[in-house]
Amino acid sequence: MEDKTGQVDILKTIEQEMDSDIHPFLKKILDNIKPIGWAVGGIIAAVAVYSGVTSYQEAQRAKAVSQLGSIIIQADPATRVQRLEEFAKTAPADLRVAAQLELAKNHMDAKDHDKAASAWQAVGASGVADMRVIAGLGEAKSQMMKGDHAKAVDLLTALKQNASDEYLPMISSSLAFAAEKAGRADVALAEYEALKAKGDSNTAYLDYKISTLKAKSQS
Question: pTM score, two decimals?
Answer without folding.
Answer: 0.68
